[in-house]
Amino acid sequence: MADPSPSVGRPLPRSAARRLAFGRGRYADDLRFPGLLHLAFVRSPHAHARIVRIDPAPAIAAVPNARVFTGADIARVCGPWQASVDNLPTLVSPPQHIVAVDRAAWQGEPVAAVVAASRAEAEDAAAEVVVEWEPLPAAAIRDRTLDADAAPAHPELGGNLSYATLIRAGDPDAALAEAAHTVEGRFSFARHTGVPLEPRAVIADYDPGEGTLTVHGSHQAPWHQQDTLSRHLGIPEHLVRVVTPDIGGGFGIKLHIYGEEIAVSAVSRLLGRPVKYVADRMESFVSDVQARDQSVSARMGVDEDGGIRGLAVDALSSFGAYAAYGRPPVNEGMMTIMMTGGPYANGHYEGRLRIAFQNKPPSGMYRAVGQPIACAVTEQLVDWAADAAGIDPVDMRRRNYWTDEACPLTTPGGIGIRRLSLGRCLDRLVAMMDYGALRAEQAALRRNGVHRGIGVATFLEMTSIGPERYGPAGAHVSTQDGATVRLEPSGAVRCVTSVVEIGQGTHAALAQIVADCLGTAPQHVAVVGGDTALTPYGGGAWASRGLTIGGEAAWRAAQGLRQNILELAGSILQADPAGLDLAGGAVCDRATREARITLAEIGRIGHFRHDTLPPGVQPELAVTRHYVPDAVPFALANGVQGSSLEVDTETGEVRLLDHWVVEDCGRIVNPLLVEEQIRGGVVQGIGGALFEECCYDGEGQMLNASFADYLVPMAAEMPDIHVGHVETPLEGTALGAKGAGEAGTVGAPAAVLLAVNDAIRPLGAQVSSLPVTPESVLTAIAAARA
Amino acid sequence: MKAPRFSYVRPESLGSALELLAEHGDEARILAGVQSLMPTLNMRLSEPRLLIDINRIDALKGISFEDGTVRIGALARHAELLASPLVAEHLPLIAAAMPHVAHVAVRNRGTFGGSIALADPAAELPACAVALDATFVLASLRGRRTVPARSFFHGLYETALAEDELLVEARIPALAAGYRSSFLEFARRHGDFALAGVCCHAHVDGAVLSDVRLACFGSEDRPLFAGAASAAAEGRAWSGDVKQAVKAALGGDLDPIGSFHASAATRLHLAQVLTGRALDRMVRAG
Lengths: 786, 286
Description:
The complex is a heterodimer of chains A (786) and B (286).
Chain A (H helix, E strand, L loop, with lengths): L14 H7 L15 E7 L5 E7 L1 H6 L4 E4 H5 L27 E2 L5 E7 L2 H10 L1 E6 L25 E9 L2 H7 L2 E13 L7 E7 L4 E6 L4 H12 L6 E4 L15 H13 L3 E4 L2 H7 L2 E13 L5 E13 L10 H9 L9 E9 L13 H19 L3 H8 L8 E2 L5 E2 L4 H12 L1 H12 L4 E13 L3 H4 L10 E7 L5 E5 L8 H12 L7 E5 L16 H28 L6 E4 L2 E4 L5 E4 H10 L13 E6 L7 E13 L6 E11 L6 H21 L28 E6 L17 H18 L8 E2 L3 H12 L1
Parallel strand pairs in A: 1-12, 8-29, 10-11, 14-15, 20-21, 27-28
Antiparallel strand pairs in A: 1-5, 2-4, 2-6, 3-5, 7-15, 8-13, 9-10, 9-12, 13-14, 16-17, 18-26, 19-20, 19-25, 22-23, 23-24, 26-27
Helix pairs in contact in A: 9-10, 10-19, 12-13, 15-16, 18-19
Chain B lengths: L6 E3 L4 H11 L3 E4 L5 H6 L7 E4 L9 E4 L2 E5 L4 H6 L1 H6 L1 H6 L6 H6 L2 H7 L5 H8 L3 E6 L2 E6 H4 E3 L2 E2 L6 E8 L5 E8 L9 E10 L2 E10 L6 E2 L1 H7 L6 H14 L10 H21 L2
Parallel strand pairs in B: 1-3, 2-3
Antiparallel strand pairs in B: 4-5, 5-10, 6-7, 6-10, 8-9, 11-12, 12-13, 13-14
């Protein structure tokens, strides 16, 4: 007997976690294929260089079973592509070869693919491929890429500027000039990358008999891959199948199309054999998309009483050598200028953006895309303004939030807001932090020379971005998701979804949604996905869309199946379906709640005993539905984060003490999953705040391409992360769920930055570059003393 | 990342290990806990022809105490040192350093001898050995010799070990009456290679320090005995002035190497702060 109470909203553990803990995870690299060849890439050691000559002969001499494919060889089956956005005609973007031809534009760009019987032999052979290089000057320092004498990242473009735009609302110049207090800062956000624990992996198997291409890989958007493989390799789309087994994290890194993955498929096609490539960690650091990497100058003006009068930001963003192909590539910078100032009532705004090329790995989406930058800039300005106006930072925020009466509205940055819950989130956060007591403790400790800091940061989180963004851009990216829900003969249920499970647990939440619709328990619902040949078409896993879009599709499919079950039960029971309901694993009388026939009996009759049904009854025990967000262009979640930390002013060490998050992601389907997302997101945000940075020298050589030197956040340094919820269901959907996957990452860098500056303010010091390092803290303190 | 081709041999005795070393010299590498060797091979930073696995050689194992000296076999795992009552009682400096040596998984396999022989400039144990005036026993077919820790470390990954020599054990004087130790390091994350670190060992009588031995690591190309800083504290009662003198002298002892993690100036500053704090703690510990 199933539990009759709804499972949506309950903290149910996910079954997949148990499977993974049992060591039964099956990742791409675990899969076995007869006749498999292994591929390794020869990569450019230079950030920018002409390829004079490639000689594969020594590689073949060293490893006779090896084959070497140069960029020119690959280009014969798959030409270059070019990032473009239909509705941004001024975007400048050079063609990019799958494997470099004639010129490499970043250190790590593939210049030849080498296949052999094992990965070790492929690496042995790759090490012997002779490439004669003619090094070129590299554009490698972000803030100088637009200088007149800067080296061009691509000589044929005549300059490094790829895109520039301006958002203006009201009269920001006058508003800033008239403000009682003006605060300003120049911020820097380091380049970083997403480092999923499982690297990118692909096994391509072209079957020359049927002309089919089957690709198993670690990817967040298998349909996007299917589309790209079909178009660029000229294989009809119905003959291309992409399968995603277990995936060890993505964070946006794996939603992009990479030349490596296409090259592996091209080589499989040329050889007619399965070919595998798994990026090793050092390759990942020089070939996974990189993100952030902006400098932002910003200015805010406030009244005597702290009311925000105007705001202006000027952002210089970086693409690397190429904008990632296939999706609108300008988002990191656009999100910065669209989201800055977002939570606060203000009519005078200017957001200026320039995006420039550098000779570094291509740029792409990484968890929270641009929003952590917007949040950190906004919140630091608000803190500085509060200080200038002599107002407590919490009060400052409360008096400047958009009011309920002002909603719905569109912010000067262009963000449509239906309804926010910032005041309630802030109240909840202040209570959770015991803010007054923390401030008192801070003051007491400061008298003993202990420098504690408190940061409170408000964030908006744009989730489940819909067709408005991708359609007009001409991106071959589906913003809908689909689900098939099917009743099995035993009364158990299967849900086949387009939502890709990348470790976030969405499939477990889908089981809860389907179970509730069908009056059964989640353990009787199996969810499968990750195969473009077998599941409904969809988007995959990105932009925190799993439940908002995929959940809504599953809800609709389950509702359809529910109706079909009730109609079939009506014919069996000779009852009016309108008087029937589903509960406790059975069809029951809607009024009396008395069980009339079990789901198992419906399944048995519906599948095996058609002979007993009245003529003309066609049991439809599987229903497919798709859902495309139509009510709003995106689901806007919001919340507030708090950070408490201590700065050792002699060593520059920042010790995190506590972190709090109150988030409103609409209806919570499973609090365990939401809180895992929040905590994981906060940890990644702290990574950006204190640790992560792709360090380059002036010639574009990455200096820290290993886990020994690229510092990801580790458990020992993390504070306890306390999570609270406010639930404002998303309007216009049945479920009311908004995304929750990026909230932690959006707000944590700001909370930590503010807390550091709060701690060192008595010394007259401040930092405005992320990550904050011991050295940058020491430098700031020394500068204040000087 | 796959290692290049190599041959592998696992001798059962010290004698056969030394024969192999004598035969293959620089083309061979010793395989002990493989926590540093394996990444080096997989990144193809090193391409030895032969790996000599010494894990079966009992003569290289164990920790023992005799006549005021602790003997640590080259194959003693970090985890053994961490759990050893002998180390805790007689070598409190090493006991204090061990939790900072990487992480549990690394400590379970990594060996004392491996850390000493690799001579990573940011490693904790070589600096402890310098501060404690350890002696290393090196063996080859030519015979055995002992080398004091202070003259063992020659530079970045460079030591007194000849191509045919194997580090057998360290002999470290046990903590004598009236002596104290103190250890501090500063790393971006726990378990990372330190940006700066200091090992202090001295006789403490009230606040008066003597036989002061300060060894710094993480900031130079090798663990460094800080002679001037040690002398600045020698025979003096610990005070704010002495602390300033020690820090100033350290500026003469050290010539740190900067990197993207921290500049030379920052590393020197950190070494000075840590040394002051470590000596504060050591004196207070009474």
